[in-house]
Amino acid sequence: MARYTGPKARINRRLSTMVYESAGATRASQRRDSPPGMHPRGRRTSNYGTALTEKQKIKHYYGLGERQLRRYFAAATSAKGNTAQNLLLMCERRLDNVVRRAGFTKTRPQARQGIVHGHFRVNGVKVNKPGYILRAGDEIELRGRENLKNLYRGVIANNSPQPLDWLSFDSEGLKATILSAPTATDISLPVDGNIVVEFLSR
């Protein structure tokens, strides 16, 4: 999506999900967890509003624009299996998401910034597209510049990502490897993908 620069805690409160993980957004969301606006708890939400909220979760969490989400949806529809799972697993295999989940960065916006600035290589080739879709066997590593290595070592030292069966991370060698394709249990965003598929199919 176009880079969101507004108050991230407000989006977390509106969507009732921690889609933005920065320290400031987390603290602000904890102080006030109700949706923004007057009398938020008394509102009734239509089916359309619920589906739109679920779609917005995916867009904000993975940093997608509307056109990009529609492209992913078209690819997920043409692939075999459950369309909702296909869509979310494609998002999970994005380079920026993998960089975040491996532990190189604390948030996805940080991962996107590093990728756009050319900090990472995939299979030895510099990739500056956050939406690059990774496959089993791909290796992600930092460029060989010492200042970059020192920067990311500092981030990694203060970061403790959850270990993943489909992804290995070498914090000493600053390298991550995709061991296998993620499965439905590896999807990190709590969202009702079926509602989103119905919404996008209209």
Automatic annotation (TrEMBL):
Name the CDD domains on file: S4
SMART domains named in the record:
Ribosomal_S4, S4
Query: Do you know which Pfam families this protein is assigned to?
Result: Ribosomal_S4 (PF00163), S4 (PF01479)
Q: Where are the annotated segments for Disordered? A: 21-46
Small ribosomal subunit protein uS4 N-terminal domain ranges (all copies): 3-92
For this record, an example GO cellular component is: small ribosomal subunit
GO MF terms, alphabetically ordered:
rRNA binding; structural constituent of ribosome
Q: Which UniProt keywords apply?
A: Ribonucleoprotein, Ribosomal protein, RNA-binding, rRNA-binding
Q: RNA-binding S4 domain: which residues?
A: 93-149
For biological process, the GO terms are: ribosomal small subunit biogenesis; translation
Q: Which domain of life is it from?
A: Bacteria
Question: Can the keyword Ribosomal protein be found in this entry's annotation?
Answer: yes
The question of whether RNA-binding is a record keyword is answered with yes
The record's subunit annotation is: Part of the 30S ribosomal subunit. Contacts protein S5. The interaction surface between S4 and S5 is involved in control of translational fidelity.
Classification via PANTHER family: 30S 40S RIBOSOMAL PROTEIN, SMALL RIBOSOMAL SUBUNIT PROTEIN US4M
**Main function:** One of the primary rRNA binding proteins, it binds directly to 16S rRNA where it nucleates assembly of the body of the 30S subunit.
Q: Name the protein family.
A: Belongs to the universal ribosomal protein uS4 family.
**What is this protein identified as?**
Small ribosomal subunit protein uS4
Q: What is the lineage of its organism?
A: Bacteria, Pseudomonadati, Planctomycetota, Planctomycetia, Pirellulales
